[in-house]
Design a protein that fits this description.
The chain is mainly alpha-helical and 289 residues long. Helices cover 73% and strands 0% of the residues. It contains 15 helices and no strands. It starts with 7 loop residues before the first helix and ends in a 7-residue tail after the last helix. It holds the Pfam family DUF2189. This is Cytochrome c oxidase subunit I. Keywords: Membrane, Transmembrane, Transmembrane helix.
């Protein structure tokens, strides 16, 4: 029987005490029991559709939108308030919104674990999301997450440079004036085109290194080098399918940003659950080889 709602204090305490480890254990977990990427499968559009279908089913079962509403959306709201209150930061509003996609794989860590447990027929509650941060997982996951955070920071810095090169360096006079400059001037159009091109490069890099690596770190003691190498291997083996997956993620994230990022409460959990199932389609278990 699947449990979807429990006492928050109970599952939080169980997760904290059940996953507490020493710093030494976490550091040791940065190593790997595997030295080479495992065998991988060719994936197709059918696998993408199946992953999305299973992702929606997991979402409805776990009500993981509630988790994102409590844990993620307040952070998004704070960012929006800060940006909207300072005109100097207004040009960063869209880059910040687009940049959330770069950090999406980290936000989905707990949901990968919930999907993994459900697939294995184990009892699953919200506490399973926190229990994903076991000692052999938290080190590699957080280390790889730091790399994605660095990519996010580089993207924001690049966006600031693009604005300075096109519409800047002075901050917008008002929200309305900024919108007019962006949509009706050649400098604004240039900013959009250059920003989309640079953003595509950042998104493609993150997609290739993370689409398989984060779920794999949850699933097995792979270590960062092997997990990333496996992700790159799958992307090289299935360039068209992974590109289509990336396009689906980009479109859904864009739609989820409207209005006021409320849609991300639904989009992010579904994509996180679906990412787990796409990983399972691409990387078979030992018994399935």
């Amino acid at each position: 029987m699947v449990k979807t709602i429990g006492n928050p204090l109970t599952w939080a305490a169980d997760a904290v005490f059940g996953t507490g480890r020493t710093v030494g254990a976490v550091a040791e977990a940065l190593g790997s029991e595997e030295t080479t990427p495992p065998p991988t499968r060719t994936i197709t559009e059918t696998d993408i559709r199946d992953a999305l279908r299973k992702g929606v089913d997991d979402f409805k079962t776990f009500r993981s939108d509630v988790m994102f509403l409590v844990a993620i959306y307040p952070i998004i709201g704070i960012c929006l308030v800060v940006v909207s209150s300072d005109l100097a930061l207004l040009p960063l509003l869209f880059p910040l919104a687009a940049g959330f996609a770069l950090l999406g794989p980290v936000a989905g860590i707990g949901l990968y674990e919930m999907s993994r447990r459900r697939e294995a027929g184990e009892e699953v509650g919200w506490g399973a999301g926190l229990q994903a941060l076991r000692a052999h997982i938290v080190g590699p996951v957080m280390t790889l997450g730091v790399y994605l955070l660095a990519m996010f920071v580089l993207w924001i810095m690049a966006a600031m440079m693009i604005y300075g090169f096109t519409l800047g360096p002075e901050p917008p006079a008002s929200v309305g004036a900024f919108a007019i400059d962006v949509l009706t001037t050649s400098a604004g159009w240039m900013m959009i085109m250059i920003g989309m091109g640079v953003g595509f490069v950042f998104a493609a890099i993150v997609l290739v290194i993370s689409v398989i690596s984060f779920p794999m770190l949850i699933d097995r003691r792979a270590g960062i080098p092997v997990a990333v190498a496996t992700s790159v291997k799958v992307a090289r083996q299935n360039p068209v399918t992974i590109a289509k997956w990336g396009l689906i993620v980009a479109v859904l994230m864009a739609l989820g940003s409207l209005p006021f990022f409320l849609g991300l409460i639904v989009v992010l959990p579904i994509l996180s659950h679906a990412t787990w199932h796409l990983y399972r389609a691409a990387v078979p278990r030992v018994t399935e080889r």
